[in-house]
């Protein structure tokens, strides 16, 4: 298949290279079609093996208690891999664990990898499943030591021999060479050709077996960003989980980064991908509304939902993603600026508040501070959190153009809301005529603060759309 390669398999305490450890290593080195070395060893992981893993692999804590640590066998493994391609079934898993184990020894592992799951997909595209059990069943292979390292290595070797007999050595060699040309980092079950993903700006969606996306992201270079996910899978636990689950990639090109950011925010809310860390639902958004009367019993009221209107932003402060977050933030401001918790609505009762009793309130609650002075101090404390009033007389459009793909997008905004992205006058007219009620969107607001204020970097691309 290749001039020099090592078929390797690991058994581990779990699925995360960052937290789990190797418990067994097996490797067989092949040079010019002949086996030249065979080696296996148990490894003391320096951590307990769960009952589930013990039942799966047959490797118990007692078996590894007197086994060498990884550091004691690392040099021998490096010598075995030197100058060879590392071949494994789901190579990303084994390679990721080896990288982590060597990194703990301050050693950087540099080795080419070839995944036999992906090789099976290329050689036998008519089959849907390419796990080791499915391959064994299709090719009539047997193993008395399944889920032990050397047992699985011998299954892979037997499958390579079977594929060579069925398809010919040239075909196996050709497809192995194809995989080695830059695709070693790809997840084993990925069916989307990586070369099909454009190197332009847009949004990408990772899918597993189902219709709900695993993850949605954006980038100015889609192919590079997608590859970065896969290359990080050996070091980052959640990237490893995505790489294990992913089956296909979809993408939507945009004319620029603004369009990609807007589209990403909308799609994440609509489709609720499983692995996005923040689903960014807006249903619980809230802000503080300041009363204009300094003598009001409660100076701040929490507003949310339909009350969170951009037309009132001159009196609103926040925004917070939950009531708990809003109260926590207000308590911190009260403590920093010696504001009265009673006046802010954080504490019930009359007379001296508890903060005044311990010297952390200047006494508006008991007449020692004038309400007007306290109100002014509160305004100053809240100033950095004040929501911005829409700085334009009406709707505006932001034009983005991509010289790479010739695409032009015009993003239409009003009162911090994204009305639409249009491409011609008819679409623009329809967007301006639409009078649907738009809910405040925190992601769009923060994006527009950066790009649409008079000092924003996209000011030159703005156009007034007043009717």
Question: What this model shows, in words?
Answer:
This protein has 17 helices and 15 strands. It has 467 residues and is α+β, with helices and mostly antiparallel strands. The chain folds into 4 domains: 4-180, Nucleotidyltransferase, domain 5; 194-271, GIY-YIG endonuclease (3-Layer(aba) Sandwich); 286-385, no CATH class; 396-464, no CATH class. A 5-stranded mixed β-sheet has the order 3-2-1-4-5, with helices on both faces. It has a 4-stranded antiparallel β-sheet with strand order 14-13-12-15, sandwiched between helices. The chain is elongated, with a radius of gyration of 30 Å. The termini are far apart.
Concise summary:
Helix 5 crosses helix 8 and helix 6 packs across helix 7.
Short key terms for the protein model shown above:
single chain, 467 residues, alpha+beta, Nucleotidyltransferase, domain 5, GIY-YIG endonuclease, 4 domains, 5-stranded mixed sheet, 4-stranded antiparallel sheet
């Amino acid at each position: 298949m290749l001039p020099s390669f090592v078929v390797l398999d690991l058994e581990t305490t779990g699925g995360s290279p960052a937290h789990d450890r190797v418990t067994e290593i097996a490797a067989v080195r092949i040079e010019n079609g002949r086996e030249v070395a065979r080696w296996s060893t148990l490894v003391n992981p320096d951590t307990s093996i769960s009952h589930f893993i013990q039942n799966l692999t047959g490797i118990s804590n007692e078996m590894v208690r007197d086994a060498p640590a990884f550091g004691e066998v690392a040099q021998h493994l490096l010598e075995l891999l030197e100058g060879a391609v590392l071949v494994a079934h789901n190579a990303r898993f084994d390679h990721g664990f080896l990288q982590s184990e060597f990194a703990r020894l301050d050693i950087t592992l540099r080795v080419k990898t070839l995944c036999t799951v992906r090789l099976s997909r290329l050689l036998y595209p008519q089959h849907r499943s390419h796990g080791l059990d499915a391959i064994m069943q299709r090719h009539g292979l047997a193993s008395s030591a399944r889920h032990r390292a050397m047992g699985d290595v011998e299954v892979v070797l037997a499958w390579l021999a079977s594929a060579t007999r069925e398809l010919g050595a040239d075909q196996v060699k050709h497809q192995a060479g194809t995989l080695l040309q830059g695709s070693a980092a790809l997840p084993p079950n990925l069916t989307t050709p990586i070369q099909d993903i454009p190197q332009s700006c847009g949004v990408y969606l990772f899918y597993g077996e189902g219709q709900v996306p695993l993850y949605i992201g954006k980038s100015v270079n889609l192919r590079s960003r997608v590859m970065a996910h896969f290359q990080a899978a050996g070091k980052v636990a959640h990237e490893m989980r995505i790489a294990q689950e992913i089956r296909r990639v979809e993408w939507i090109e945009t004319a620029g980064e603004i369009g990609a950011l807007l589209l990403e925010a909308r799609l994440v809310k609509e489709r609720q991908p499983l692995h996005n860390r923040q689903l960014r639902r807006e249903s619980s958004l809230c802000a503080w509304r300041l009363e204009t009367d300094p003598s009001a019993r409660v100076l701040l009221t929490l507003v949310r939902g339909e009350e969170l209107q951009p037309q009132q932003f001159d009196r609103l402060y926040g925004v917070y993603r939950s009531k708990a977050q809003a109260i926590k933030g207000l308590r911190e401001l009260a403590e920093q600026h010696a504001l009265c918790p009673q006046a802010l609505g954080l504490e019930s009762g009359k007379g001296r508040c508890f903060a005044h009793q311990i010297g952390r309130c200047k006494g508006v609650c008991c007449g020692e501070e004038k309400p007007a002075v306290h109100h002014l101090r509160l305004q100053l404390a809240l100033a950095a959190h004040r929501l911005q009033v829409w700085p334009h007389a009406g709707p505006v459009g932001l034009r983005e153009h991509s010289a790479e793909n010739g695409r032009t997008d015009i993003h239409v905004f009003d009162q911090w809301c994204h009305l639409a992205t249009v491409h011609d006058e008819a679409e623009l007219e329809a967007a301006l005529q639409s009078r649907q009620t738009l809910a405040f969107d925190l992601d769009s607001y923060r994006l527009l603060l950066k790009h649409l204020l008079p000092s924003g970097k996209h000011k030159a691309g703005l156009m007034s759309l007043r009717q």
